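Model it.
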Amino acid sequence: MRLLIIFRLTQGFTISKFDYATVDFTQPNTINYYYRLKGLDNEWKAAGNRRTAYFTSLNPGKFTFEVKAEQYGKWSQIIPLSFTVKPFFYQTFWFKSVIVFVLFIAIFFGIQLYLKHRQEARLKSLVDDRTKELKESNERLQIANKAMEDQNLKLREIAWTQSHVVRTPLVHAWNSKHV
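Modeled.
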């Protein structure tokens, strides 16, 4: 009993289909098939007289499809077919490395932006506190300046009044001496 394998991989390798058959056309319904896919599962699967095996979503890697047939207790030899499923670009080490690098850079700049924002908030708070202190100090100085101006005005009035009080008798005394 000879066994043939026809191998088809659909685009994207989401579903892999293996067709197999024996070269015995007299009683094909009495042949039982068994298959396995090394690299995915090492257990033999009984397919009965079905001559197709399907595998879905094969991950990248090396596989060996093996099939054997049995008819009336007589076994065929195991027919292997080795193949490799290459990874899509997004499944490669380099792509994952670039993604990790980009995430690292994004996190780094996110932290930098957060720290800058926090520092700006702290500086704004400090400037607001100092501005409030300066306004309060300025108000106190304006009040003190107003009080000093009021006292200065009162002192001028007192000095002017006192100068007239003292000058009037002196003028009379001076005038009486020169007369």
